Amino acid sequence: MEALMNWLEAQLADNSIFTLQTLSYYGQGLSTTVQLVFLSLIIGLVLAVPLAIGRGSKHAWLRLPIFFYCYVFRGTPLLVQLYLIYYGVVFVEGIQETWLWVILEKPFVPALIAFTLNTAAYTTEIFRGAIKATPRGEIEAARAYGMSWGLMMRRIVLPSAFRRALPAYGNEVIFMLHASAIASVVTIMDLTGAARFVYARFYAPFDAFLFVAAIYLCLTFAILYLFRYLEKRLLAHLKPASG
Amino acid sequence: MIDLHGYGPRLLEGALITIELGILSLILAVLLGLLTASAKMSRSWLLHRLGTLYTTIIRGVPDLVLMMLLFFGGQIGINQITDWLYVQFDIDIFINVNEFVAGVVTIGLIFGAYMGETFRGAFMAVDSGQIEAGRAYGMSHWLVFRRIRFPQMMRHALPGLSNNWMVLLKTTALVSVIGLSDMVRVAAEASKATREPFTFMIIVAAIYLLIASVSEWGFARLQKRYDVGYGEAD
């Protein structure tokens, strides 16, 4: 590790912008971006499953509010949602006296809430489409076996719906990675935030932003290949028989 | 009634900027998309590679990063070119990058890549017999494009086009970050000044939903127009 750092320092010796200092900003930014994206995706996924089931419910009192939530969060810019939550949270009556303020004071949590609500809305729609596409025969077979609704959902509908949703969900993950750049607007030092800092410090837009663009490109490709691998593993049975 | 603290007119101006920006960048994106689709389908190896490079890079990098790169870097880049022209050829020009133009160019450039993919798929969905028939009638390439390929391609492209437009509309919000006074920026300023973020942000959200709903209706009508002759089935 020591040797590696020395080597890196020697490599960067005659570079005035990319010093170890600025690279560490990018490193911290990368970690913030990954945390933000990963956490919001996981929480959004957990929220989206019951929402997607409710979205297809027979009862209007359950279906309509979820429809409205998805419509609003998919129809407005993430930036507006982020501003609403980031600026709005301060004005909730008496919140500054409670323990919640300790975590809400930093921009990370409001941003996480906004991103989670946004991705949950998109993921709900993806899952709803996948659940709706369940072949009728599978449901009839489950019924014929005397499965209860819960058992049928758990054993038949959801597992196959998850698989069908995989390609669309991969796009959503990439979309979320790109959307997370918006976090830099509310002073979060994510990857884009680090690039903006380096740009402002050295007035070198090409170096600062091209470097960060390359990092995002690598992350995008990594996600792309991960999902391609998953699809190959999980959707193997849907491939047309070869030979 | 909702008290806008005198921000009403500015909010309206911001909404107009959002709409203008959206429509102008949509036009640019459609033109770039058609070019990209042609490049990617062309027999030329170089054009194909260039088209692929463009769509891959644009779709792999966040919109905001591209916007900052082009906006902050664009001025410096242009200055360097004009400086070089001055030193080399004694041509003295000064080009100032206007935020609005930068916004249109960036968003157009980003969505040109997405449109390119949409159009490529749609062009390939046009039955090649149709094109052959057009050629057999002695139509020129351009006439075949205008009368046969384009109208039939649009039928397949419209759903993707409408999707791209919805995403583009929401992306226009990002120009507020590079300093353009669209409605999001006005609302953010008003929120800070009046300490009433909910009022302003909810109004802005409602305007976005309104624009989206109106355009959804418009696209449905267009789809009907381009579906003429295909019946109701699909």
Automatic annotation (TrEMBL), chain A:
Localized where?
Cell inner membrane; Cell membrane
Q: Keyword annotations for this protein? A: Amino-acid transport, Cell inner membrane, Cell membrane, Membrane, Transmembrane, Transmembrane helix, Transport
- What's a single GO CC term here? ATP-binding cassette (ABC) transporter complex
Q: Biological process GO terms, please? A: amino acid transport
**CDD domains in UniProt:** TM_PBP2
Give TM segment ranges: 33-54, 66-88, 108-127, 173-196, 208-227
Q: How does it sit in the membrane?
A: Multi-pass membrane protein
The residues covered by the ABC transmembrane type-1 domain are 30-227
Family recorded in the similarity comment: Belongs to the binding-protein-dependent transport system permease family. HisMQ subfamily.
Instruction: Give the NCBIfam families listed for this entry.
Output: HEQRo_perm_3TM
Q: Provide the protein name.
A: Arginine ABC transporter permease protein ArtM
Q: Which source organism?
A: Halomonas nitroreducens
Question: According to the entry, what is the taxonomic lineage of the organism?
Answer: Bacteria, Pseudomonadati, Pseudomonadota, Gammaproteobacteria, Oceanospirillales
UniProtKB/TrEMBL annotation, chain B:
Q: Quick one: where is this thing mainly located?
A: membrane
In terms of CDD domains, this protein maps to: TM_PBP2
Record-linked Gene3D superfamilies: MetI-like
Q: Which residues cross the membrane?
A: 15-39, 51-73, 93-114, 156-178, 198-219
Instruction: Mention any Pfam family matching this sequence.
Output: BPD_transp_1
Q: Where in the cell is it found?
A: Cell inner membrane; Cell membrane
| Cellular component, GO annotation | ATP-binding cassette (ABC) transporter complex
- How does this chain sit within the bilayer? Multi-pass membrane protein
Asked if the Swiss-Prot or TrEMBL record annotates the protein with the keyword Transmembrane, the reply is yes
Q: Name one GO biological process term.
A: amino acid transport
Q: Which UniProt keywords apply?
A: Amino-acid transport, Cell inner membrane, Cell membrane, Membrane, Transmembrane, Transmembrane helix, Transport
Describe the location of the ABC transmembrane type-1 domain by residue ranges: 15-219
GO MF annotation, one: transmembrane transporter activity
Q: Which family does it belong to?
A: Belongs to the binding-protein-dependent transport system permease family. HisMQ subfamily.
Q: Would you tell me the protein name for this molecule?
A: ABC transporter permease
Q: Which organism is it from?
A: Halomonas nitroreducens
